[in-house]
Automatic annotation (TrEMBL):
Domain of life of the organism encoding this protein: Eukaryota
Protein name: Trichome birefringence-like N-terminal domain-containing protein
Main location, first listed in the record: Golgi
Family: Belongs to the PC-esterase family. TBL subfamily.
Species assigned in the record: Zingiber officinale (Ginger)
Amino acid sequence: MDSPLAAVAKLAGFYLRKGGKLPILIVAVAVFLLAAVLYGEDMRSLAEYSWWRYKALYETDYAPGDPFVPEACDLSDGDWVFDQDYPPYREGDCEFLSKQVSCLQNGRPDTLYQKWRWQPKNCSLPRFDARRMLEWLRGRRMVFVGDSINRNQWESMVCLMQTVVPRGRRSRIVDGSRIIFPIKEYHASIEFYWAPFLVESNSDEPEFHSIPVRVINPDSVEKHAAHWKGADVLVFNSYIWWMNDPRMKVLRPGAKNWTEHQEIGRREAYERVLRTVFDWVDRNLDPNSSSVFFMSMSPLHGRSMDWGNPDGVKCAKEREPIRNMSGVHIGTEMGLWALARKAAASTARVPVTFVDITAMSERRKDAHTSVFTMQQGKVLTPEQKAEPAKFADCLHWCVPGLPDTWNQLIYARFLSGRRPQR
Ligand SMILES: *[C@@H]1O[C@H](CO)[C@@H](O)[C@H](O)[C@H]1NC(C)=O
Ligand SMILES: *[C@@H]1O[C@H](CO)[C@@H](O)[C@H](O)[C@H]1NC(C)=O
Ligand SMILES: *[C@@H]1O[C@H](CO)[C@@H](O)[C@H](O)[C@H]1NC(C)=O
Ligand SMILES: *[C@@H]1O[C@H](CO)[C@@H](O)[C@H](O)[C@H]1NC(C)=O
């Protein structure tokens, strides 16, 4: 007999077999009371623990009636539809949301930006179901690797998922370049790893990366990858840091330190970096049990003339998505987009899913943090807010908001089988 709980269960089973008279409710109450006495405050976690153990034993991953998203459906082609049921959670309910993206708390007066649902032309995007996502992540590590936009997306994922962890038992662990949201009961974690160029660079220090001369080592990823080796789900991105200069400084072959660099074109460098990262993926991950995603370019909205608003100031006055994209050019570097898509499709062993968020995000001039954000550790002052031309951040996104939809795309791909298999 392995536990008192099992003992009661067996006893009850015995009575039932004998006479079948013992009402099931009484048995249940007896088991519950005994467990409550034994485990006291842990009762709630015990109940949850048993629940998922049960599910693991008796249910398959896939329930009938799941909305199915055909692989062939182009999720990147669609429209933003106003939906009163959005957002999926409230900003104030997301416990670990950083001040940087807590736009309402920072004084943003409108909430319209939270209420848009992405509607692909040819199929529907299923609503994000944290419980189901959690079932898939049980016993797994999901790691977002990239720059602050990817951290933005990681924050959204934590907000979407945090309700599955009871209040009071949620935590957030900062460990060097890693931030971890553990889901202990499920032996799972959702992590972010700071590597703005993916490969090694002189800007890898998570807190102090305002380096005047940025240099990358395009052929070397091992030092970072050691921190995500063994991850089951990897979500990569890398874009904004490439846009400072059309030429990139890369380490010379055989260089001893970051001062020994040479310049090559941005696209050439990007291609080399992708090759390094995807080669690592191909050599080090188990194609049968891991899932790899590469997020496409997240656009900037720095010039209101791009969408034909001569009265605008960067993204600061925008309250609605762009409805008609014809004749609109946001200026995203689509050359990098094409390189990333091609590289993602050309791994030999481990499939990489290219998640195209670019076109849908280009429409969301309204969704940036703008002046409702922080700078150098402080929320912008009223004086700074009054100067959006100088202070508006038209790069990062409010949460809840657009990054929730990016995560919904990953969720949809999980639904159609791109999740790690057991
Ligand atoms: C919609 O789906 C159908 C059938 O799968 C396909 O033939 C068609 O090209 C798709 N259209 C768009 C706009 O994706
Ligand atoms: C970097 O290497 C160069 C050439 O080997 C050397 O002259 C320089 O002092 C080194 N700089 C640092 C900071 O170590
Ligand atoms: C992946 O699964 C296939 C089919 O079940 C099997 O033949 C193959 O050896 C597996 N590969 C690895 C790396 O485990
Ligand atoms: C979008 O704008 C273009 C040019 O400005 C116009 O010709 C077209 O009719 C518009 N489309 C819609 C759906 O409004």
